[in-house]
Amino acid sequence: MKLVRRTTCSAVLAATLLLCSCSQESAEVAAGPAAAAGNKADAVVADGGPSASDPSVQGPGHGAGGYAEISGQWDAASKRLKVSVWVGSIKDLLGMAAHLRYDPKALQLTKLELQSIAEVGDDAPGVWQSRGIAKDAPLGRILLGSARFRSTIAPFLFPQGAQVDREKWVVLEFAVLEHGQTKLWFDPPSQLARSGEGTALSLQWLGATVTVPQAFALGSVGGAP
Amino acid sequence: MKRLTMSLFAARAVFASRAGGSRPSSQVVASAVALLLAGASALLGQAAVAAPAATRQVWPVIEALAIAPDSPGARRFQAHHAEAIGRPAQFGQGGPWSWYAANFSALGTPPWAIKHQDITVDLNATKGTLQTKLLVTFEFNEAADQLQLVTGAVKTATVVGPAGAKIESKLTALSGMSLLAITLPDPATPGVNITLEVNTLADLDCSPEGIGLRPCGLGGTFQWVTFHRYFLQAAMMGHAPFTSDLHVLTPAGKVAGAPGLASGPDTLPDGRLVYHFKQVERTDNAGFAIASYDPYISKLAGGQPLRVYAAGKYVPYADDLAKLVIDVTSWYGERFAKFPWSSLNIMQLENNFGGGYAPLSAVFMFRDVFAAQPGTGYWEETVELTAHEVGHQWWGNYVEPYTSGDVALSESLAEESSCWYTEKTLQSRQQMIGNHLSYLYTVPGNQDIAVGSQNVYGSPHYVPVVYHKGSAVFDMLRELIGDEAMAKGFALYTDGFGRDYAKLNDLRLAMEQAAGVKLDWFWQQWLFKTAPIQAEVSGRLAGQGDKLAVRLRFAQATPKRFTVAVTVDYADGTQLVAPVEVIPQGEAPVVVEVPVKAAPVRVRLDVQRRLLRMWATATPGDFNLSGLVDGADLVEMAVRHGRAVRVFGKSGQPFFYGDTSWNELYDLQPDLRVDMTDVETFAGWVGTESEQF
Fold first, then answer.
1. What end-to-end distance do the CA atoms of chain A give, in Å?
2. A97 with B635: Cβ contact below 8 A
3. How far off is chain B from A180, nearest CA to CA, in Å?
4. Which domains are assigned to chain B?
5. Chain A partners of B31 at a C-beta cutoff of 8 Å?
6. pLDDT per residue as tens, chain A (225 positions)
7. Which of A145, B229, B236, B275 is a plausible cystine mate for B97, CB 3.0–4.6 Å?
8. Does the beta carbon of B599 lie under 8 angstroms from any beta carbon of chain A?
């Protein structure tokens, strides 16, 4: 068995200020048992499909009202745990932010992509731009933030929020480093969403549990990329 | 007074100051940047990420800019010009302006003074002339045979003695006025009054001077004389009050309005009318207007007659203005002193008058104010202007500024009174915030002048300094000592100086007595020195468990003492507002702590803009003062994005725009606009932690 070599020298996943397209993902993800029936898993297909010994991601699933939730699945081909953060059922969203926490002893972040959200509203294309940040700093605390900005400014123009039905906010990939369970969660004091008028929006910030069965061969992962 | 939930915290500086404008220290975790592009985002182009600069510009460069035309700010600015003209550059500073008459006790006993004037004015709007007949009664404290008088510029003047004999006089032009030197045939006897008849003829020049209001108007609808001194003054212009009877000749069908108890009209043989106005108070502030007025007559709360002189289609709305004036006078009466005069007359003038003017027991305002109605868009500006001008019945008339360096006792107090009134009755601080921004963003630092400077009249920034900063200063005083003490202080002040002249320090003593605290530091800092608060602010969360505190550091280039309301928002939706006292010891930064129950979502300073200040984040982009530049700061930035206090006209010329939503904290590239440049700059600081302190 090839042992995983733990390292503190992670792949650099640094500050990004992304001008993203508004890619309306069609795939929906079952975040957990409570997720709506009919949701599909992330578009990650492993040879032969996930097995019981593969790592898995389980979240509580959202209730009524706005939410940010986590889903994911093991991808045997890339040997990575592919995780998505979804947001939805939010009216008048101007921006949102949080610190997504994970245990760097158990997981190693290998990819971090921020998707644009809330860029499209009732206005013509180009009126709004989405800006976001995603940075794993310090290790184990991923700084996330997205907001929409009007392309032009004028004294009589003020920020406006947008309707977000369900959009993928962040895509992450992890290498697994330990057996057992580890959490992905949004640090409570960092949870923030604001409307166009700047008022706080109450969202369900739903974390998830990553389970790495003892039967899973860590050595086959190959450790850090 | 706003009740806050915490006691004051003050702390001495614990860290040496650092050079303003430099980036955080080496303890800062710099951003190592590797961009990961989402597939689609690459197609649209990656926004450039600005690397943190080794040094950065912290404060904006302020230029003297005009106000954006047709903006609410422009209307306010125009409206508040008020008494910006018609005053001499210096009061009581020697030279020909230094004579002053025996009037109020503060002036002492001069050799002679004008006691009373009986004034008849005949305005010929077609010819643009003003013919005046004055019966001037002098009183003498010493034997004198030389009388020097000042009036608006006249081309002829003759003087006739008590016996009907012509008296020797000489007319000289003097700084846009006329100096009339009279030689009495015999020296006057102390204690014996003499009445002279003076006839003058003036060609009126009604073009506006400087930034001020039109001194007169000769239009077809309204004719008026306000700042042009149609009466005689015995001394330097500010200190020569006298009682008077004014008689205004009008064409048949016209009505005259002026300060004083109104009577008439009488009809002359040629069909013209004569309206009479008895001014029982001693004043040298006056004016009159003629139009097809239909006066709306009401009463103030104290029973004094109130007349609103509106004309034509504006007449039906006069009752709204009357109700407003009644409410304002009552409101002020409860806080300053009972309305001191026996009547109040409000006159409508042309829009080109440009604002408002408030001599004793009267107010003149431009036309459109008289059409405003509650609930309409123009009502707020109408209330602001009316409350300012009515405020002058106390400030500038009941208590007059002693020197030009005390003009804040007139204009700043009138404006603060108006702001106080609108804050309480309209539930809006828009007027005061607009005043803050006007001073902060239109007065270049190297042209700033103290509100209490003897030269403030000569400043090109007279209005933003005296009206806007001055009112903001007294608003800060009210915040400091509370509404109740402020009103008590005003009552003490008017009690001591009503119908007299006062200096800025007279008001200080009254306020100190009312509040029970020393205020000399406040007076020195805000009235006799320049500049606002400019502080670079850092925040951190200190402690752990249930012993958490928000630690704040204020670094000021020019240290000022202040108490700032710190607003802490928690994740559970609750909020803490804590007043924190910042008392600099020298130039070192001040560090203070505010105990908190949990890690805050954000920390904000002076949310209601009650301090005359500019903040900047010492850790650029840490807007919520968490100690870390993160996504929450980006969201806060989105809320403030798009605000600007500098806008551009069609041809690109920059204007000041008093955007009351402006928050300078987010102007990372300080160009007076929170735009995408600032957002891109923010990106370079993501992940930065504030230095330890």
1. 17
2. yes
3. 29
4. 39-64+533-683 (no CATH), 72-79+396-527 (1.10.390.10)
5. 14-15, 135, 137
6. 333 333 222 333 334 444 333 232 222 233 433 343 334 344 333 344 567 889 999 999 899 999 999 999 999 999 999 999 999 999 999 999 999 999 999 999 999 999 987 666 666 777 888 999 999 988 999 999 999 999 888 888 899 999 999 999 999 999 999 999 999 999 988 999 999 999 999 999 999 999 999 999 886 544 443
7. B236
8. yes
